[in-house]
Amino acid sequence: MNKNVFYKRIIGLACILAVGITALVISTSFSVNNEYPSANTGTLKIIFSNTANGKPITLRDSLYSNYFGEQYSISKLKYYISNVSIDNKNTRDYYLMNAASGDSSLEIPLEPGNYNSVEFLLGVDSLRNCSGAQSGALDPMNDMFWTWNTGYVMFKMEGNSPASTFDLQRIEHHVGGYKGSNNVATKIKFNFNDAALLQIKANNTTEILIETNLDNYWHGNTDIKISELPVCTTIGELAKKIASNFKNLFSIKTIRIIP
């Protein structure tokens, strides 16, 4: 065997080994980043239950009464949940909760163990508001997007009320804004302890039921009267006034492990 053939074979073998090592490193990095959850991974399922006056929201067919005695019905209820963080580990996913779909939930794979906190954003962060055309939950076809300048509607509620001074007694609350002082995206955080333990078990689903209570939409940090604010479809002070009550919307009702 001449020297040129010998050296070519050595170089070829070295390239094969390098590719193999690279593949191993890539595979390991995927495992660390949970791109491919292990067989022993558990699941955290978060269900959002929309309520008012102590009962589930039924679109168009039910009447509700707010803190001020104003009756109203709801024809549309949508809001974004994003950047779910478990013990400060951010998933950076985006979910559109739609009362018309009948399923307002999300699932996250987690390693078994006890967790101290769950945090999420009601709305869409500024990065995704400036990222151009998108798909999935952030697809503009979902009717939750204004323009590239004003961005996503974080929370949308439409309906009717005898107290409304708008035409056809309509309610239209399209709450958005992501720039500077007009940002209405709101962080919601729940901390856990021995009395309310968040435990993930291998090959099991831990289900958290979170109530989205619209009674707290109208009254909390700020009073929102339908007679005074039947319509909000732009960014600014009115949107910020409504958003000031977002933190009061959510509460954990139950935590259970499903085998």
Can you lay out the helices and strands and say which pair or pack?
Layout: H1 3-32, E1 42-52, E2 55-56, E3 64-65, E4 71-86, E5 89-90, E6 94-98, E7 105-110, E8 113-115, E9 117-122, H2 126-129, E10 153-160, E11 170-176, E12 186-191, E13 198-200, E14 205-213, H3 215-218, E15 231-232, H4 237-243, E16 250-258
Parallel strand pairs: 1-14, 11-15
Antiparallel strand pairs: 1-2, 1-7, 3-4, 4-5, 4-6, 4-9, 4-10, 8-13, 9-12, 10-11, 14-16
- Tally of alpha and pi helices: 4
Question: Could you tell me the strand content as a percent range?
Answer: 35-45%
Shape: globular
What is the SS-derived class? Answer: alpha+beta
Strand/helix succession: HEEEEEEEEEHEEEEEHEHE
**Largest sheet report:** 9 strands, mixed
Distance between the termini: 65 Å
Average residue pLDDT: 86
Number of strands: 16
Helix content: 10-25%
The gyration radius over C-alpha positions equals: 24 Å
Runs in which pLDDT lies below 50 for 5 or more consecutive residues are 3-36
Account of the protein in words:
It is a single chain. The chain is of the alpha+beta class and 259 residues long. 17% of the residues lie in helices and 37% in strands. It contains 4 helices and 16 strands. The strands form 3 sheets. Strands 3, 4, 5, 6, 9, 10, 11, 12 and 15 form a 9-stranded mixed beta sheet that branches. Strands 1, 2, 7, 14 and 16 form a 5-stranded mixed beta sheet that branches. Strand 1 and strand 2 form a beta hairpin. The protein is globular, with a radius of gyration of 24 Å. The termini are far apart. The model is unreliable at 3-36 (pLDDT under 50).
